[in-house]
Design brief:
Blueprint lengths: L5 H5 L2 H18 L4 H66 L3 E6 L4 E4 L1 H7 L3 H4 L4 H5 L6 H11 L4 E10 L5 E12 L5 E10 L1 H15 L9 H18 L2 E9 L2 H8 L1 H18 L4 E5 L4 E9 L2 H16 L2 E3 L2 E3 L3 E8 L6 H17 L4 E4 L4 H20 L3 E10 L5 E12 L3 E3 L1 H11 L2 H22 L5 E5 L2 H4 L4 H12 L6 E6 L1 H19 L3 E7 L6 H6 L4 E4 L1 H4 L6 H16 L3 E4 L5 H10 L3 E2 L10 H15 L1
Parallel strand pairs: 11-12, 14-16, 16-17, 17-18, 18-19, 19-20, 20-21
Antiparallel strand pairs: 1-2, 1-5, 3-4, 4-5, 6-8, 6-11, 7-8, 9-10, 13-14, 13-21, 14-15
Bound molecules: ligand C2E and magnesium ion (MG) (2 copies).
């Protein structure tokens, strides 16, 4: 508001006083002729002038002051209106924020009674504002175990200081769910600076927490078995080692690998493989409850840390318990499987003082168990390192050995013991490596069985042997059987019969002259599954021999069910045949039993005439061994036997 100042500017005190004084003087003089009176009038005119001048001047001054005050008042009113407008806007804004916010906002008094409750709070808790007003939020939302901490919170807030990001309360909603919130609490004070109420703003972090939990699960747990994975093991193992170190305790790291897992995966499919992994996970979990940290490493590998270890005997006892639990038969898809595992053990602090070394040594020891025929345990020893590097060399060079034709076959004659004539040959694999020289099949067959490379090698051998048979056939050298050793794993490979059919057709060789030598351990392990694939092979006309008979566990009853034509008695029984009666009884029993089942018997490892004579006496059909001939190169086979066959012809 602007005031009109013009009147004030126009008023001149001198002029006003002069006009009034002159009027007074003129009028006064007109009504008197006395000198005394006129003198008095003159004097009083001067006085009137000064009095009026002074009065007008004062009035003008007062007017200016009033005007100034009015100006100030007008400014103040203007400010007040602006503040009011601003306050109104701010209220609108905060009301809007509180109403539409995605934050839980509520106010409460010092008795925890709820004073206001925003729509978002209604949404997440399920309560309407009118249901909660006047009620204690502590009683309404908090679980009993959360309640005690509220007192401390209020004590702090009463000091007038706000509290930011106070970590999560768990609130119980109307429908009984739990939600987690993170809070900022601000006290509100009155004119005396006393806290009268508190405004609490909460962020609902339930989804975030769940996501973190889920991510945590993915990052630290195996999806299939739910067991801790390698990353979590790493973290936990360091803590376990640290604890053991401080208490001067021993630990055992067990590296557990399921035997022939790849075989189950390849033959029964991945879903059966997954079932087995879950099954083993459960078996291991329920084995020991305390002093036991179980985790899942790679595909079919688990790790167990045994704590509270007394001595080596204690580790052996606990490991054997684990192995026995795994060995219990496992059924899937109507088949029963005998599962076994290989366990490598490293000890803290004897073998290493950190997780990585202990795992590495456990793994080496496990690998050693595999090479020694699986299904057992082994404690890490320093010499293992060398052995492992040799094995690694083998595993890394197998493929190249096939491509570079480093594999050759030798053929060992099988003789008809009655007539003394040639009955056939067994093909035996020879690997001449440019760096390492001759490497025995006993060294690499168990190894590559475990890696699965055996399947490629077996088919390579089959092709080489059948190709050789064809070459001899074309030379006119025929009418004998050819034995080829087949690993258990290759036999269980799906479609082995199809592949054999193709090779036989390609080389035009009579299937009846092919004998697959299989070892009996395969039957001891997974007899039901094997029989199916063996019958498929027999359909092709191919014959089968059960190799190394007597070293495994197959029973007579099992033998009866197998589609085999020959039994090969293991050389360990032949060795002492002429000297001890015990082995003689065993061999006689085997021969009689085989004959009763309509099977022929081949004796392996005949080194002396005496052994041969006993075998003839016991009625053995065929024999093979250094006494007759060592395994020979094809040229030597031709020089010795083709000539004989030709002569006989
Ligand atoms: P096997 O099938 O029992 O083969 C017979 C083994 O006895 C051969 O050893 C042979 O050289 C040896 N031998 C033959 N006559 C005598 C003898 O009079 N006295 C003694 N002490 N030994 C004799 P080799 O060639 O070292 O083969 C060892 C094993 O390796 C074989 O045992 C067989 O299980 C496996 N193998 C050999 N070649 C192959 C193959 O091509 N594929 C597969 N899967 N395994 C093979
Ligand atoms: Mg053999
Ligand atoms: Mg044998």
């Amino acid at each position: 508001m602007r005031l009109d100042n013009r009147i004030d500017e126009r008023v001149n005190p001198q002029k006003e006083a002069l006009i009034i004084s002159i009027i007074y003087l003129v009028l006064g003089s007109m009504f008197t002729s006395l000198y005394d009176s006129r003198f008095f009038i003159a004097i009083s005119t001067v006085l009137i002038y000064f009095i009026i001048y002074d009065r007008v001047k004062r009035i003008k001054k007062m007017n200016a002051v009033v005007y100034e005050s009015l100006e100030e008042l007008s400014e103040a009113t203007k400010g007040l209106v602006e503040t009011q407008e601003k306050l109104y806007m701010e209220k609108m804004l905060s009301d809007n924020i509180i109403k539409n916010s995605s934050l839980v906002i509520f106010t409460w008094d010092l008795d925890y009674k709820i004073l206001s409750f925003n729509p978002y709070a209604e949404r997440v808790t399920g309560y309407k504002e009118e249901e909660v007003i006047g009620k204690s939020w502590v009683d309404l939302f908090l679980h009993d175990d959360e309640k005690p901490k509220v007192e401390g919170l209020t004590r702090y807030l009463k000091s007038g200081k706000p509290l930011k990001n106070s970590i999560g309360d768990v609130w119980r909603t109307k429908d009984g769910r739990n939600i987690e919130l993170i809070w900022t609490d601000s006290p509100i004070v009155d004119e005396n600076n006393d806290v009268v109420k508190i405004i609490s703003i909460g962020t609902d972090i339930t989804d975030h927490k769940n996501l973190v939990k889920r991510l945590n699960k993915i990052a630290y747990y195996d999806g299939l078995t739910g067991l801790p994975n390698r990353s979590l093991l790493e973290k936990e193992a360091e803590k376990i080692i640290e604890r053991a170190r401080s208490k001067d305790e021993k630990l055992a790291f067990l590296y557990v690998d399921i035997d022939d897992f790849k075989q189950i995966n390849d033959t029964l499919g991945y879903s059966a493989g997954d079932k087995l992994l879950i099954h083993i996970g459960q078996v291991l979990k329920s084995n020991e409850k305390n002093n036991y940290y179980l985790s899942k490493l790679g595909e079919d590998e688990y790790s167990i840390i045994l704590t509270g270890v007394k001595d080596k005997e204690d580790v052996i006892e606990r490991t054997e318990r684990i192995l026995n639990a795994i060995r219990q038969p496992w059924c899937t898809d109507n088949y029963e499987f005998n599962i076994s595992a290989s366990i490598g053990i490293s000890l803290f602090p004897d073998n290493g003082d950190n997780f990585y070394d202990l795992m590495k040594y456990g793994n080496m020891a496990m690998f050693h168990v595999k090479q020694r025929g699986k299904n057992g345990y082994f404690f890490y020893q320093d010499e293992l390192g060398e052995r492992i590097s040799y094995n690694t060399f083998i595993i890394n060079h197998i493929r190249r050995a096939i491509e570079e034709e480093e594999f050759k076959l030798q053929y060992q004659p099988i003789i008809n013991l009655i007539t003394g004539e040639l009955y056939g040959f067994e093909s035996l694999l020879r690997w001449y490596n440019p760096e390492r020289g001759y490497i025995s099949p006993m060294e690499y067959i168990p190894l590559i069985e475990e890696t699965g490379q055996i399947v490629d090698v077996t088919f390579h051998v089959l092709k080489m042997a059948i190709k050789q048979k064809k070459l001899w056939q074309d030379m006119g050298f025929k009418g004998f059987v050819l034995g080829v050793n087949i690993s258990n794993k290759s036999l269980m490979k799906c479609g082995i019969d199809e592949e054999l059919k193709m090779i036989l057709r390609e080389y035009d060789v009579d299937p009846k002259e092919l004998v697959l030598e299989i070892t009996e351990t395969v039957f001891a392990d997974n007899i039901d599954y094997c029989i199916d694939s063996l019958f498929g092979v027999r359909e092709l006309g191919i014959r089968m021999a059960l190799d190394d008979f007597g070293t495994g566990y197959s029973s007579l009853a099992q033998l009866k069910r197998l589609p085999i034509n020959y039994i090969k008695i293991d050389k360990s029984f032949i060795k002492n045949l002429s000297r001890t009666t015990e082995d003689k009884i065993i061999v006689r029993t085997i021969i009689n039993m085989a004959h009763n089942l309509g099977l022929y018997v081949i004796a392996e490892g005949i080194e002396t005439k005496a052994q041969r004579d006993v075998l003839i006496e016991l009625g053995c059909d065929y024999g093979q061994g250094f006494y007759f001939a060592e395994p020979l190169d094809p040229v030597d086979v031709e020089a010795t036997y083709f000539v004989k066959v030709e002569k006989n012809a």
